[in-house]
Specification:
By secondary structure, the protein is of the alpha+beta class. Helix content is about 20%, strand content about 25%.
């Protein structure tokens, strides 16, 4: 009997099942599923198929400048506009379900999707390498420092779009005792900007907490950053797509006034639509094109109810190619990184948003995500006063004897990993203000550490390495522009050694990038300018994709860049080193995706329905005693 190896079996399955050419990167689908309009999202179409009774809340994307005519039609159809997003060419609309198809039939309507519910996705300074670059030498003589500065995110605006921020917490005040929250606005309708739920304050402190509440023991990555508090999750930790869109549009309109260069999204909703039509993904792309780094949580749906590892559950907007999508690792409470591992709960790739053609065939995005991973298990951060999470789970207290304004708590999840990367992005922008969002993302990936035993669907380019990213950012030329020729020198000095030493432990950088459905590697990526580093692009624009093959796109990337042929299980070295896990060619087609013995067919995962929807998941089965705070993974509140 012939014996098939695992990778041969995967390839055989892909050939046996029908394979249809994938949607090119960045291309918009031409039609979506029947029997509803081709411009109606799959989940809304299914809702209409089951029943056209009652009302629905939707997000309508339209072609400018038809907004006033659209508003009149919505009224005639018995609906009402609940929110207007003029910069995004979108409306949030409440209308009878029976009117959805008539609305979508208009030529000026581009897409109609559900105004879905969104929810929150919970020693950091040392283990991320931040402490190693906190003090920067700006002037030296004969190797001796004459002038130094602190790299802490000062002058950089960081918008936390979450459940609110307790602006009076000690971690979020400056040296004079004043709040570092420069602006707050509520988008939930509750009329408050504090944090009764408790998620947003914790997230904000991981990105920008100054450690005052813990005697500097638990300081965030960018403690000097200017915080902007945009509240989209209510007192129960829930929100809507329309609320999130409103917050993103606020950033688009006010980013210059408040110096917002980074947005943190530790929240999400299950990805149904392709990123090409998902309204939140489109808003994220617009912000990235405008110069704002958007960091998004991968999600916490990495296993089913039996504990089996599952794939394909990256959440929106983490499926957006321009976003820096972050998964979670477990540091096991040690500063050294040698024992770090990807948590079992963090969502794995590929991104499985989809569109359906006129023949009813589904096309999946199949993008490799996440882009990075960072510590996200039992992370200590600020606790908002009288917050619901802590009230319902007092075991999450870090030190219950502390006064409310200094209280700290444990949380776990990709929500906690995300602000560490957002804080790192703020440091890179402070170190080199001319970096584009694409360059920030590239530097974070190029210098990441590949974790042994984890595949690319689990860790992307690897674990956050602030030390390497900052050192490389300081070398990048500040005169780059969209006119800079591909292949021009990227750095102001010689090629740096592609390695870092954190907490006494040395490791090599990944030296590679995640690009759509493959990866790229090679020193050219950090020594020569690539056209994809400019605004208005995604990194994946450097790759041409056919039905079964991929190649560098001429003029977008240098010839010295090498594309990968497989998703790899890392051996702990550079991104291109390891054991083949899955052929990248298979990501160019549709159908069934096989990984670790768990079958993903037609977009449905084994165990689907158990962890569907993002919520606050408390523990795996129990919350461990705080006497062993770093044992196991995912045992506190996740996302």
């Amino acid at each position: 009997m012939k014996v098939f190896k695992l990778y041969q079996l995967r390839a055989w399955l892909a050939l046996v099942l029908f394979v249809v050419p994938a949607l090119p990167a960045g291309a918009a689908p031409q039609a979506l599923s029947r029997p509803a309009s081709p411009k109606i999202s799959a989940d809304l179409s299914e809702r209409l198929r089951r029943s056209r009774e009652g009302g629905v809340n939707v997000v309508v994307q339209y072609a400018a400048p038809q907004a006033s005519l659209l508003d009149s039609l919505i009224s005639l159809l018995g609906g009402r506009v609940t929110r207007r997003f003029s910069r995004l060419n979108a409306r949030a609309v409440s209308l009878p379900a029976s009117s959805v198809e008539a609305l979508a039939a208009r030529a000026d309507v581009r897409y109609v999707s559900v105004d879905s519910e969104i929810r929150a996705s919970g020693h950091v300074e040392t283990t991320t390498g931040t402490a190693a670059v906190r003090t920067q030498t700006t002037l030296s003589l004969l190797g001796l420092p004459l002038a130094q500065t602190t790299l802490d995110g000062a002058g950089v605006g960081l918008a936390v779009i979450d459940s609110g921020i307790d602006a009076q917490h000690a971690d979020l005040r400056d040296g004079l005792g004043q709040s570092r929250v420069a602006y707050s606005q509520d988008f939930t309708g509750e009329g408050r900007t504090d944090d009764p739920y408790g998620h947003g304050t914790h997230v904000a402190s991981l990105a920008a907490g100054n450690g005052r509440g813990s005697g500097a023991a638990y300081r965030g990555v960018a403690p000097g950053a200017r915080l902007v508090n945009l509240r989209v999750l209510n007192s129960e930790g829930k929100g809507t797509v329309s609320g999130l869109l409103a917050a993103l549009e606020w950033v688009a309109a006010n980013r210059t006034l408040y110096g917002v260069r980074v947005v943190n999204l530790s929240l999400g909703t299950p990805a149904v639509d392709s990123y090409a039509v998902d309204p939140v993904c489109r808003a994220v792309r617009a912000l990235s094109d405008a110069g704002v780094v958007v960091v998004a949580a991968a999600g916490n749906n990495g296993r089913d109810s039996q504990g089996n590892k599952i794939y394909g559950q990256i959440h929106s907007p983490g499926v957006e190619p321009s976003a820096v999508t972050v998964g979670a690792t477990n540091t096991f409470g040690t500063d050294a990184r040698g024992d770090d591992a990807v948590t079992s709960f963090t969502s794995r790739g590929p991104a499985r948003g989809r569109w359906v053609d006129e023949g009813g065939v589904k096309h999946y995005d199949n993008l490799i995500k996440p882009d990075l991973v960072a510590p996200g298990n039992k992370v200590v951060g600020a606790a908002a006063r009288s917050n619901r999470l802590l009230a319902e789970h007092p075991e999450l207290n870090h030190d219950a004897s502390q006064p409310a304004e200094r209280r700290m708590m444990y949380l776990s999840g990709s929500s906690m990993a995300t602000p560490l990367v957002a804080g790192a992005a703020a440091l890179l922008v402070q170190a080199n203000s001319q970096l584009t969002p694409n360059l920030v993302k590239a530097l974070l990936m190029l210098t990441a550490q590949q974790l042994r035993g984890a595949n690319t669907f689990e860790q992307g380019a690897g674990q956050l390495n602030v030390d390497g990213a900052v050192r490389l950012a300081r070398l990048v030329r500040q005169d780059l522009s969209a006119l800079t020729a591909t292949g021009s020198p990227l750095l102001t000095s010689d090629e740096p050694a592609a390695e870092s030493s954190v907490a006494g432990e040395s490791f090599v950088w990944s030296q590679g990038l995640i690009l759509n459905r493959t990866y790229a590697a090679g020193p050219d990526l950090y020594t020569r300018y690539q056209a994809v580093y400019a605004r208005g692009h995604i990194l994946g624009d450097g790759v041409w994709e056919g039905d079964t093959s991929q190649a560098l796109r001429a003029g977008m990337m240098t010839e010295g860049v090498v594309l990968g042929a497989n998703v790899l299980t890392s051996d702990g070295a550079a991104l291109w080193e390891g054991v083949p896990f899955f052929s990248t060619e298979l990501l160019l087609g549709n159908g069934i995706f096989v990984g670790d013995g768990i079958l993903v067919g037609d977009g449905i995962l084994v165990g689907d329905g158990i962890l569907v929807g993002d919520g606050i998941l408390v523990g795996d089965t129990t919350v461990e005693a705080q006497s062993a705070p770093f044992r196991g993974d995912g045992t506190a509140c996740m996302r």
